[in-house]
Design brief:
- This protein is an alpha/beta fold.
- It has two domains: about 15-220 and about 345-405, Rossmann fold; about 255-330, formyl-coa transferase, domain 3, CATH 3.30.1540.
- About 40% of the residues lie in helices and about 15% in strands.
- The longest helix has 24 residues, at about 180-205.
- The protein is elongated and about 85 Å long.
- The two termini are about 40 Å apart.
Length: about 400
C-alpha cells in the first residue's frame, strides 16, 4: 500500500457474512483479523424481538441494557460491519444481491434449503457474481442420508463420537459432552481454511466455486486422525482408539501441593524423570518400558506409575527439576488463571479495549503472528444494523432508497 503500513493478507477481500451463532461467526472473525472486510448481514426475527445473531443476547452486559453486545458475541464478531435486512422482502434481497456483486466470498451457515427459499442459492448468487466463492457450513453433507438435518454442537458431538470418548478413558458408559463448543469451533477452523483455499484457487484461475463444510464429516475426520489407530489397516492390527490418549492415567498428576502435567517422550526423558523420582533403574529392570514401541503397548501401566513419583514433591519443585532436565511439563491452569498466566501476558494475548457503547472489555488477540501481513483488531463488534446506511451509501444508494430497505420495526 502507498502509506507503507503492513496490512493483513486479506486486505481488499470482501466477505458477505450470513453466518451466526459460533461456527460461522468464529470462521469469519479469523478472516477479519487477517484484513478482510466482513459485512455481517443480520435479519429481524419474530423469535427474538431484537433480532440479529442470537449470540448477541446470550449473557449479561456491564450496562444491563439489551444492546445486543453479549459476551460470546463480543469475542467472535470484531472487525465486522453489521447490516440489518429483512431478506423476506424483495427489495432487501435485491439490495443484498447488489452488495454480493461487490464481494469475493459469500459465507453462510443457514440450511441450504432455507437459502434457496430466500433466492440465495449458489445459482442465484452466481448470476450477479459469476466468480463468487460460495461457502456454506452445514450439519451433514447435503448428499448424505442426514443431509438437511438441523445440527448444533451438542448433536454433532453425539453423532461424531466425541461424546463417547470419556467412556473410553474411565469405563463409565454414560456419554458426556466435551465442555467447550468443540464441534462449532473446530468446524469453524475448517470453514476458514476452506475459504482461504478457495481464495487461493481464485487468485490462480480467476474462478470461484461452491464449497460445503459439513460439521459431521469435519469432526469425524478430526477425531479419527489419531483414534482410527489399529483400524487404519484391513484387517485391523489393534484396537480402535489411540491407546496413549485413552489411557485412564493420562491426566494432570497430583503433586504434594497441587497438580502438574508431564509428558516425557524420548527414552532419555523417561529415564531422567524416574531418576528424579528415585527410580533410576526402572528402564533397565522392566522391558515393558525400554523402547517407544514397548511404552506405547504398555502405556496404561507406565502412566499409572507416574503419580507415585510426582506426589513426593511440590509443583514448584517439579517445575524447576523438569525444566532443568529438559522434560516437557506445564502448570495446570484453571479458566480464571489464564489472564494472569505469565506467558500469555508477555505475548499480549489479551487486549483491553473500550467499546463505544459498553465501555471496557477484553479482546483475545489473533494468536498467529505474521511477519509481513499482521493480523489486527480494527473494529469493535458492531451494534445490530449499525453499519446499514454506511454500507449501502458505499454502493451509491441515497437516503430514501436506504430507508425503504430498513425493517419496519427498527
Amino acid at each position: 500500500m502507498s502509506d507503507g503500513k503492513k496490512r493483513g493478507a486479506l486486505d481488499g477481500i470482501r466477505i458477505i457474512d450470513l453466518t451466526s451463532v459460533v461456527l460461522g461467526a468464529y470462521a469469519t472473525s479469523l478472516l477479519g483479523d487477517m484484513g478482510a472486510d466482513i459485512i455481517k448481514v443480520e435479519s429481524p426475527s419474530p423469535k427474538n424481538g431484537a433480532g440479529g445473531d442470537i449470540m448477541r443476547w446470550a449473557g449479561d452486559t456491564p450496562s444491563g441494557e439489551r444492546n445486543g453486545l453479549g459476551p460470546i458475541y463480543m469475542t467472535i464478531n470484531r472487525n465486522k460491519r453489521s447490516v440489518l435486512l429483512d431478506l423476506k422482502q424483495d427489495s432487501a434481497r435485491e439490495a443484498l444481491l447488489k452488495l454480493i456483486s461487490t464481494a469475493d466470498v459469500f459465507a453462510a451457515n443457514i440450511r441450504y434449503e432455507g437459502l434457496k427459499r430466500l433466492g440465495l442459492s449458489y445459482e442465484d448468487v452466481r448470476k450477479v457474481k459469476p466468480d463468487i466463492i460460495y461457502v456454506i457450513g452445514t450439519g451433514y453433507g447435503e448428499d448424505g442420508v442426514y443431509g438437511g438435518r438441523p445440527a448444533y454442537d451438542d448433536l454433532i458431538q453425539a453423532a461424531s463420537g466425541i461424546a463417547s470418548m470419556a467412556s473410553e478413558v474411565d469405563g463409565d458408559p454414560r456419554p458426556r459432552f466435551f465442555p467447550t463448543l468443540v464441534a462449532d469451533k473446530t468446524t469453524g477452523l475448517f470453514m476458514a481454511n476452506a475459504i482461504l483455499s478457495a481464495l487461493f484457487h481464485k487468485e490462480r484461475t480467476g474462478t470461484g466455486q461452491f464449497v460445503e463444510v459439513p460439521m459431521m464429516e469435519s469432526m469425524v475426520s478430526f477425531l479419527l486422525t489419531e483414534h482410527l489407530y489399529g483400524h487404519t489397516y484391513e484387517p485391523p492390527t489393534g484396537p480402535i482408539g489411540y491407546v496413549r490418549v485413552t489411557a485412564p492415567d493420562r491426566k494432570p498428576y497430583r503433586t504434594s501441593d497441587g497438580y502438574i502435567a508431564i509428558l516425557p517422550y524420548s527414552d532419555k526423558q523417561w529415564r531422567d524423570f524416574f531418576s528424579l523420582g528415585g527410580k533410576p533403574d526402572l528402564f533397565e529392570t522392566d522391558i515393558r518400558f525400554n523402547t517407544y514401541e514397548n511404552r506405547t503397548r504398555n502405556i496404561r501401566h507406565l502412566y499409572a506409575m507416574v503419580e507415585d513419583v510426582t506426589s513426593l514433591k511440590s509443583t514448584e519443585e517439579w517445575m524447576t527439576l523438569l525444566t532443568n532436565a529438559d522434560i516437557p511439563c506445564a502448570r495446570v491452569n484453571r479458566l480464571g488463571d489464564l489472564m494472569q498466566d505469565p506467558h500469555l501476558q508477555s505475548v499480549g494475548l489479551f487486549e483491553k479495549r473500550t467499546h463505544p457503547v459498553e465501555g471496557s472489555y477484553w479482546s483475545i488477540r489473533h494468536p498467529v503472528t505474521y511477519g509481513e501481513t499482521p493480523a489486527s483488531i480494527r473494529r469493535d463488534p458492531p451494534l445490530l444494523g449499525e453499519n446499514t446506511q454506511e454500507v449501502f451509501r458505499e454502493l451509491g444508494l441515497n437516503d430514501d432508497e436506504i430507508e425503504k430497505l430498513l425493517p419496519t420495526n427498527t
